[in-house]
Write a structure and sequence with these properties.
The chain is mainly α. It has a domain of 47 residues. It contains four helices and two strands, in the order ααββαα. Strands 1-2 form a two-stranded antiparallel sheet.
């Protein structure tokens, strides 16, 4: 019995001590960036993320009625053939015609509430 205890303790010691001895050494740490330099870098990255990627041109004419493209009517499943004229809406936004934009979005919403298939 005494030999089996010694063997058990030896096995436990080997299991507990060897994994720690075989661990990889930690990777060398990167040099610490000074707080002021880090703040400056973060501000520059923020400006870069928030800047426009592309400039889009407005449409040549502003819409005077609900901006929809496509032919009137519906497909066989009941969904409308027309779709939103995104360029027209973007032009209204570009020219600051917020009242017209609001009116058109309210018309889209009212059409959807009346018939859920009109989810332009």
């Amino acid at each position: 019995m005494n030999c089996s205890r010694i063997a058990l303790y030896s096995l436990l010691a080997a299991l507990l001590l060897l994994p720690g001895a075989c661990r990889k050494k930690p990777a060398p740490t990167q040099p610490v960036e000074p707080p002021a330099a880090r703040q400056q870098r973060l501000k520059q990255e923020l400006v870069k993320r928030q800047s426009a990627v592309a400039a889009t041109a407005p449409a040549p004419t502003l819409p005077t009625s609900l901006p929809l493209k496509g032919s009137p009517g519906a497909h066989a499943d009941g969904y409308p053939r027309q779709y939103v004229d995104q360029l027209g809406l973007r032009s209204l936004l570009h020219h600051g015609r917020y009242h017209d934009l609001t009116r058109y979005f309210e018309q889209y919403q009212a059409a959807f509430e009346k018939d859920p298939r009109k989810e332009y």
